[in-house]
Amino acid sequence: MQADGKNKVINFHLDHSPKTMQVALNDEGEYEGGRLVYVTEAGLELPLRKVGSATLHDNSVAHGVSELTAGVRYGLFFLQLPLAQ
After folding, report:
1. How remote is the C-alpha of 84 from its chain's centroid?
2. For residue 62, which of 17, 22, 18, 12 has the smallest C-alpha distance?
3. Which CATH class is domain 10-79?
4. Planar angle of CA 40, 45, 46, nearest 5 degrees
5. Are 23 and 75 in contact (CB under 8 A)?
6. Burial class for 46, CB neighbours closer than 10 Å (0-12, 13-18, 19+)
7. pLDDT above 80 for 16
8. Which pLDDT score is estimated for 83?
9. Number of DSSP helices (H) and strands (E) in the chain, helices first
């Protein structure tokens, strides 16, 4: 996600993948905004994402990414394939 690109925000959504893991490839100090946001019973949660850290959630967790206002945010995503029926 780049601050000067068209996709500066990822709206809240549920994933189709049963589980998703995201690995931060750069530190949050290298960009502004672009924070991962989870919607939980306790309210909005914004996990700290140091380079190399991973977050894991299932497809029942609503989440999005706040507006990226400067820099470039790099991430690696792993998606679990749904079981064949």
Report:
1. 26
2. 12
3. mainly beta
4. 150
5. yes
6. exposed
7. yes
8. 72
9. 0, 9
Q: Residue 53: CB partners within 8 Å, gap ≥ 6?
A: 23, 24
Interval 55-76: pLDDT, tens: 999 999 999 999 999 999 999 9
Q: Which two tokens stand for residue 5?
A: 């690109």
**Look-up of token digits 């780049």:** 2
The 10s digit of each residue's pLDDT in 23-67 is 999 999 999 999 999 999 999 999 999 999 999 999 999 999 999
Query: What are the extents of the domains in the chain?
Result: 10-79
Output the six-digit token pair for 57: 């959630």
Cα–Cα distance, 3 to 33 (Å, whole number): 9
Q: Note the pLDDT of residue 51.
A: 96
Distance of alpha carbon 12 from alpha carbon 63, whole angstroms:
5
Place of tokens 């990414």: 65
